């Protein structure tokens, strides 16, 4: 179930719009809950039946099907040599058991394991110096943050905040407190602030999930524009103000923003890199 | 013979997440008559026009009605059958059912139509039914086109009974309401003002449409009568596929949630169409200009990665002009479980229009129930949806009514009518003017 961020009504996972208020849900990620993969992989004992050109018995529900069917009439599972179920547990190598093989096609590519689990966790018994802070022993921070795209047409792509730096040469903002990168490539103008769908405010750089609220970031806090090769920043009359380095920005006044400059919006500090 | 009706399936997402407990899938089905044989067919007609010439039709209305009718006559084929009935508090058969062979003569008759008297629709309808029945032919498109600007006086049950008869005899009624400047709804505690302006009742006309398997529409200004008539004519001539029935057989554990017709007009079919393991829709007539489009929302069970059929769609239909009956076309609906794929933008567009429709329909019913806050909020949400899909005019109309509601506690009556009918046409290209709400038989 997805909860509508606008009116908090529960909606069926996969719904495009909230049943109650019409808010666009299509880009809300509904985290798939991994259940134990059901044994849909048919045992090879299904194949001998097909060879005789008679009705095919579905390996999942047992219904007899006409040999010309691709999918079971009753439950819809594929009737031909089924793809092995892609398990959700990222096993590095599938160990073939005796029964699993010859007629089955190559096992379906399992979903790539999340990047977070890639770096090996240090085993607790390894000789580690005592001074290593606890944070280093913990798994890497969660992988890519969900894209903040509440009520926009699906085709628009916003700068995805990430813990990996964007490709070299891309202009970017780095949130100092968390090390999150916002790739600004391709934008000649963007808003920084906090999303508010009810007031139709959708800043390209949304700091809501990054302590924006507590840090005193206004919904429409600042704007970065690109004119020719020069970036500019402008405070949009925010409640708690914007600073470029140590100088407070006068509202609605475009000021040149240069590589390495530090921007403070309310209490949040961002470093800007032009390339 | 396969090939006269093309059935196309599109999914909002071709691939959905595997192993999710339950998720919604949107399926768009398009049924379009197709093929060389079909292209050349122009269906012969058996039409009755039932025209209101009561006193309120004076001026531009009666003038435009006459002109629109004459234009219609000129556009019909010599083999088409036409009858013209005029009514006020009596009915007169101006032209009995006859081939449109001498259009000029018929046009002269039309010029004699004058405005006078009150409004008794049932009398006109009765005559029309008689005229069409005389030459009823399953090979023809048999229809009654009713146009009125006011409310019928004291004979509503009679009209409804006639509409039911018409439905049983396969003669749909296209009920057209002329004019927008209708009576304001009664303020609480005050009597309604009657007998002034274009006070035709959408519910009444919708009722006639539903009972007869026809449709209902709004003509907001008299100048638009001619294009509405044109459209009715063109659609009727292009109605090559008839008696079409769609069955969507769902596989185990797939549950239907909602079903909508989205072309030519948006309407919710869920109540009648949904059964436990299948969705059954009577598509009826399908014309080659617009075809018919259905949006089905299905709840999918969890499955591991891999392709799965979720339903089988089958349409049975006739093509009477070439002597074909009980033809079938079928398509498998298969979805891939795995990693969620991108949204199909065309399907998303339709889903968004249906969402705007739902919001507006709900807003209208909230407003009527006196829930001003709910109606206002929904109209605003609808406006957002409409802006998102580029329907700026419709969005403005919705915002306007939201403001009216907020400031005055009620919607303008013209606004209510306009919203009511335009909401059904949200899936149509601008200015297409195709004929009205479908009824659900």
List strands and helices in order, with pairings.
The complex is a heterodimer of chains A (275) and B (441).
Chain A lengths: L1 E2 L6 E2 L35 H5 L4 E2 L6 E2 L68 H4 L23 E2 L9 E4 L4 E4 L5 E5 L11 E2 L13 E8 L2 E6 L6 E3 L2 E2 L6 E3 L4 E4 L2 E6 L2
Parallel strand pairs in A: 8-9
Antiparallel strand pairs in A: 1-2, 3-4, 5-7, 6-7, 6-16, 8-10, 10-11, 11-14, 12-13, 12-15, 15-16
Chain B lengths: L4 E7 L3 E3 L5 E11 L2 H4 L5 E8 L7 H16 L5 E7 L3 E9 L3 H9 L9 H14 L6 E8 L7 H13 L4 E6 L23 H11 L2 E5 L5 H13 L3 E10 L4 E9 L3 E2 L1 H4 L4 E9 L5 E9 L5 E14 L4 E15 L6 H24 L3 H17 L3 H17 L4 H12 L12 E2 L3
Parallel strand pairs in B: 2-16, 4-5, 4-7, 7-8, 8-9
Antiparallel strand pairs in B: 1-3, 3-14, 5-6, 9-17, 10-13, 10-15, 11-12, 11-14, 15-16
Helix pairs in contact in B: 2-3, 2-7, 4-5, 5-6, 9-10, 9-12, 10-11, 11-12
Mean of pLDDT of chain A: 68
Instruction: Categorize the overall geometry of chain B.
Output: globular
Q: Give unreliable regions of chain B as ranges.
A: 431-435, 437-441
Structural class label of chain A? mainly beta
The largest sheet of chain A has its strands arranged as: 5-7-6-16-15-12-13
Determine the CATH topology of the largest domain in chain B: Rossmann fold
Counting copies of identical and different chains, the oligomeric state is heterodimer
Query: If helices are DSSP runs of H or I spanning 4 or more residues, what is the number of helices of chain B?
Result: 12
Number of domains of chain B: 3
Given as residue ranges, the uncertain stretches of chain A (5+ residues, pLDDT < 50) are 29-52, 81-157
> What is the name of the CATH class of the largest domain in chain B?
Alpha Beta
The biggest beta sheet of chain B, please? 7 strands, mixed
Judging from the principal axes of the Cα atoms, what is the shape of chain A? elongated
The H-level CATH homologous superfamily of the largest domain in chain B, spelled out, is: von Willebrand factor, type A domain
């Amino acid at each position: 179930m997805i909860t509508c961020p606008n009116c908090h009504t529960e909606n069926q996972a996969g719904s495009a719009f909230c049943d109650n208020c019409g808010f666009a849900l299509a880009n809300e990620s509904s985290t798939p809950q991994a259940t134990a993969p059901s044994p849909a992989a048919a045992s090879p004992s299904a194949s001998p039946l097909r060879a005789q050109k008679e009705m095919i018995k579905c390996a999942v529900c047992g219904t007899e099907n006409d040999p010309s069917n691709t999918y079971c009439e009753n439950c819809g599972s594929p009737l031909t040599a089924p793809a092995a179920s892609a398990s959700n547990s990222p096993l590095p190598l599938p160990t073939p058991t005796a029964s699993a093989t010859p007629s089955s096609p190559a096992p379906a590519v399992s979903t790539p394991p999340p990047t977070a689990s890639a770096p090996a966790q240090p085993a607790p018994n390894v000789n580690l110096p005592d001074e290593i802070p606890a944070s280093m022993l913990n798994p890497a921070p969660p992988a890519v943050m969900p894209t903040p795209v509440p009520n926009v047409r699906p085709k628009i792509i916003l700068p995805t905040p990430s813990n990996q730096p964007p490709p070299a040469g891309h202009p970017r903002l780095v949130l100092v407190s968390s090390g999150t990168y916002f790739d600004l490539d391709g934008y000649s103008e963007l808003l920084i602030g906090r999303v508010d769908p009810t007031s139709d405010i959708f800043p390209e750089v949304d700091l809501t999930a990054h302590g924006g609220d507590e840090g005193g970031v206004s919904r429409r806090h600042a704007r970065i524009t690109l004119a020719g090769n020069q970036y500019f920043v402008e405070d949009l009359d925010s409640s708690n103000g914007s600073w470029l380095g140590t100088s407070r920005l006068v509202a609605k006044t475009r000021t040149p923003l240069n590589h390495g400059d530090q921007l403070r919006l309310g209490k949040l500090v961002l470093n800007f890199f032009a390339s | 013979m396969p090939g006269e009706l093309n059935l196309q399936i599109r999914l909002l997402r071709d691939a959905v997440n595997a192993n999710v407990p339950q998720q919604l899938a949107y399926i768009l089905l398009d049924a379009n008559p197709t093929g060389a044989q079909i292209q050349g067919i122009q269906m012969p007609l058996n039409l009755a026009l039932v025209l209101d010439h009561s006193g309120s039709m004076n001026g531009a209305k009666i003038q435009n009605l006459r002109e629109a009718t004459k234009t219609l006559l000129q556009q019909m084929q010599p083999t088409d059958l036409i009858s013209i009935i005029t009514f006020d508090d009596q009915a007169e058969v101006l032209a009995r059912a006859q081939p449109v062979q001498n259009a000029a003569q018929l046009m002269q008759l039309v010029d004699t139509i004058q405005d006078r008297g009150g409004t008794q629709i049932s009398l006109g309808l009765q005559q029309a039914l008689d005229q069409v029945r005389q030459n009823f032919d399953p090979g023809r498109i048999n229809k009654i086109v009713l146009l009125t600007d006011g409310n019928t006086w004291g004979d509503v049950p009679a009209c409804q009974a006639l509409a039911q008869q018409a439905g049983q005899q396969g003669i749909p009624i296209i009920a057209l309401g002329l004019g927008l400047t209708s009576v304001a709804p009664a303020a609480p505690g005050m009597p309604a003002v009657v007998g002034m302006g274009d006070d035709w009742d959408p519910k009444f006309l919708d009722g006639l449409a539903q009972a007869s398997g026809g449709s209902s529409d709004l003509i907001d200004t008299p100048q638009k009568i001619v294009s509405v008539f044109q459209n009715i004519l063109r659609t009727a001539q292009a109605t090559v596929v008839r008696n079409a029935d769609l069955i969507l057989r769902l596989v185990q554990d797939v549950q239907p949630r909602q079903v909508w017709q989205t072309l030519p007009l948006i309407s919710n079919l869920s109540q009648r169409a949904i059964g436990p393991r299948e969705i059954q829709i009577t598509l009826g007539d399908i014309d080659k200009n617009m075809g018919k489009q259905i949006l089905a929302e299905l709840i999918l069970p969890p499955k591991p990665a891999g392709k799965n059929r979720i339903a089988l769609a089958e349409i049975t239909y006739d093509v009477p002009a070439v002597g074909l009956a009980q033809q079938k076309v079928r398509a498998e609906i298969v979805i891939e479980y795995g990693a969620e794929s991108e949204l199909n933008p065309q399907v998303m567009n339709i889903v968004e229009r249906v969402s705007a429709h739902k919001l507006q329909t709900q807003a209208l019913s909230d407003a009527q129930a006196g829930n001003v806050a709910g109606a206002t909020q929904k109209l605003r949400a609808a406006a957002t949806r409409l802006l998102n899909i580029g329907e700026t005019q419709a969005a403005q109309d919705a915002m306007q009514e939201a403001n009216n509601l907020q400031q005055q506690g009620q919607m303008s009556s013209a606004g209510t009518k306009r919203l009511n009918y335009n909401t059904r046409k949200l899936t149509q290209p601008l200015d297409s003017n195709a004929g009205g709400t479908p009824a659900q038989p």
